[in-house]
Design a protein that fits this description.
alpha/beta, Lambda Exonuclease, Chain A, 2 domains, seven-stranded mixed sheet, 21% strand
Length: 236
């Protein structure tokens, strides 16, 4: 169990999953650079970040819900948590489970099943950066409510539709391993060295990180030859 002053932001997991150096520059050194991708993502979150609750019949929507896990040492907030009221027939099955999938809300009758909805720009990614962040939010909410959350959802800005994600054993395992790595690197307090890959091109910190120039050591001749070749390709 972690103390309150040891809690790390859930948002750091997405940066860490994308690139350990990016995580270090942002969360250890306080470096941030805006680009088109980050600006679009910020705008998409504007409405979700409004702290409010909305009621639509058997659906209750909590925005910017604060999350915390002392077991995992995480804190943050969910863009949206939907609470779906179960039908009477479903309530009987839930009450018999050791760890239910639904909870009672204060001052509200019935049982309500939580669903986390995270807002993202663009399309679903090929890697697991988004999924581990969503899973970490679910793990925090499970601890807070004493429930089991079997799935979550993303709302992506470009297709403007939801994408459901099962929170299965594999994803949970990957997320907990990444959380352990997050605490390990945070204790070390040292920004990891750069390593250039194709995904560096989409990183807003590429001009700060300079992965090609400050990455693995090589001769000046080799570096200049590669830089000239890249410039020629860009002109074509």
């Amino acid at each position: 169990m972690y103390d309150e002053d040891e809690l790390l932001p859930i948002s750091a997991l997405q940066h860490l999953a994308f690139c350990e150096r990016q995580w270090g520059l942002i969360h250890l050194e306080g470096v941030w650079e805006e680009n088109l991708l980050t600006a679009e993502g910020r705008q998409l979150h504007d409405r979700a970040d409004e702290d409010q609750t909305e009621v639509r019949g058997n659906l209750r929507i909590a925005r910017a819900l604060r999350l915390r896990s002392l077991r995992l040492g995480l804190t943050g907030k969910a863009d949206v948590v939907e609470f779906h009221r179960l039908a009477k027939a479903e309530e009987k099955g839930v009450s018999q489970e050791a760890r239910p999938v639904a909870v009672r809300l204060e001052g509200v009758p019935g049982l309500w099943e939580p669903l986390i909805v995270e807002y993202k720009r663009g399309k679903p990614k090929l890697d697991r950066c988004d999924e581990v962040q969503l899973c970490a939010q679910a793990l925090c909410l499970e601890e807070m409510l004493g429930v089991s959350i079997i799935s979550g959802s993303f709302f992506y800005g470009e297709p403007r539709r939801r994408c459901d994600v099962p929170l299965d054993k594999t994803l949970r395992g990957e997320t907990e391993v990444l959380i352990a790595r997050l605490h390990e690197l945070n204790r070390a307090e040292k920004t990891p060295p750069p390593q250039y890959t194709q995904k560096c091109k989409s990183c807003s910190l590429i001009n700060v990180c300079l992965p090609k120039a400050t990455g693995k050591r090589e001769s000046v001749r080799v570096y200049l030859s590669r830089a000239i070749a890249q410039a020629e390709e860009d002109e074509i």
